[in-house]
Amino acid sequence: MQYFTEPLFRIGGNYVTAAGLIAFVVFFAVGVSLAKIFQSEQFRRLLTRLKLGKNFASIIPTIFGLATLIFFTITAINAAGVPLAWNRPLPGISLTLVQIFLLVALLLGVFWISARTKSFLFDRFLVNSGLDRSLQYAISQIVSNIVLVVGVFIVLDNAGIHLGTLTVFAGAVGVGIGFGLQNIASNFISGLVILAERPITIGDRVEVAGVAGQVQQIRARSTVILTNDNITMIVPNTKFIDSPVTNWTYGDPRVRFRIPIGVAYGSDLETVRNALLEVARENSHVLEDPKPTVFLETFGDSAINLELVVWSKEMSYRPRRFRSDLNFAIAQKLREAGIEIAYPQRDVNFRGGVVRVEMTPSEKTPQRAVADGA
């Protein structure tokens, strides 16, 4: 037992014993184990069940893991015989370790209150207000951001970090925004404009900057769009301000679809017209008002070109499938009616002379035509 109490070496005027080393290893191992637990998938699922918000739940494991590791590391150093005072200000700052942990806890509380404020307003308070759901989301997001900013300022001020001392830092940040951070600031302001003017809302089907899909989220810096291929695209908010945007569900979700068809010359056009209108009537996604219409567009080189015009709301959900279903049904109807779908062809007329066709065996040239005369 005397071996455990005998000094082994000296650190900063403090002797470290074997018992102190053992205590250091035990406390440090406990801290690492708890940090791994906070980073585990089980802990993340627990946070999801508590409905803390996706963004808030994603940062809690990291913060808890780091705080636990720091706490047990300091405790392990103290147990080893090297005293670190919890209430002594750290070099360079006027905060103690206890105040730093309290500051982190308060900031986490502010983030949690901000997330819960948004959830409460959107899911409960504004549900029966009669406002559009997209406007309810915009109000909830703006109020949540205000709560977050005000809460952070209050926590920092009460922790002794006075905002007046950050004037120089704020000036440096302003210069940074003017150069390297201007895109981030521009996207943030564009996000506020989108929430205020609401040119797009959650659930809208849009096309912007070559991306087409349904709007899933409108965040501070970017907007999340889900394509029909189930691919999530992150589009900067500035694209919705300085680029042309096609919103297929803005106002009236009805969209006109034009389906071109070419039939052979000699076809009964009235039969073709009735077949196309029957296809439109049989499709449950075609609207009755406005009524489907068939137009004779042009007399082409190889076909009479017609166009079936229908109205539908499917542009917001599955436009490609809707067009495909109509084309399949048109091909079937025309086949049943004995109407030939035209294909490119050419007629060659000989005004004079003689054409001789000579057939050769299959192992030689398959076919040869020799034309005499002009």
Description of the molecule:
The protein is α+β, with helices and mostly antiparallel strands and 374 residues long. It has 3 domains: 2-130 and 142-156, no CATH class; 176-247, Roll (SH3 type barrels); 255-336, Alpha-Beta Plaits, CATH 3.30.70. Helices cover 48% and strands 19% of the residues. The chain has a 5-stranded antiparallel sheet with strand order 6-5-4-3-7. A 3-stranded antiparallel sheet has the order 8-10-9, with helices on one face. The protein has a two-stranded antiparallel sheet with strand order 1-2. Strand 11 and strand 12 form a beta hairpin. Helix 5 runs antiparallel to helix 6 (133-158) and helix 10 crosses helix 11. The protein is elongated. The chain starts with a helix and ends with a strand. Mean pLDDT is 78; it is low at 364-374.
Strand content: 15-25%
Low-pLDDT runs = 364-374
Oligomer: single chain
Largest sheet: 5 strands, antiparallel
Radius of gyration: 37 Å
Question: Could you say how many structural domains there are in total?
Answer: 3
Mean of pLDDT? 78
Strand order of the largest sheet: 6-5-4-3-7
Structural class: alpha+beta
Straight-line N-to-C gap = 122 Å
Short description:
With 374 residues, the protein is α+β, with helices and mostly antiparallel strands. It is 48% helix and 19% strand.
How does the SSE layout of this entry go?
Blueprint: H1 2-5, E1 7-11, E2 14-17, H2 18-38, H3 41-49, H4 54-79, H5 97-125, H6 133-158, H7 167-178, H8 182-197, E3 205-208, E4 211-218, E5 222-226, E6 232-236, H9 239-242, E7 246-247, E8 255-263, H10 269-282, E9 293-299, E10 304-312, H11 319-336, E11 354-359, E12 367-372
Antiparallel strand pairs: 1-2, 3-4, 3-7, 4-5, 5-6, 8-10, 9-10, 11-12
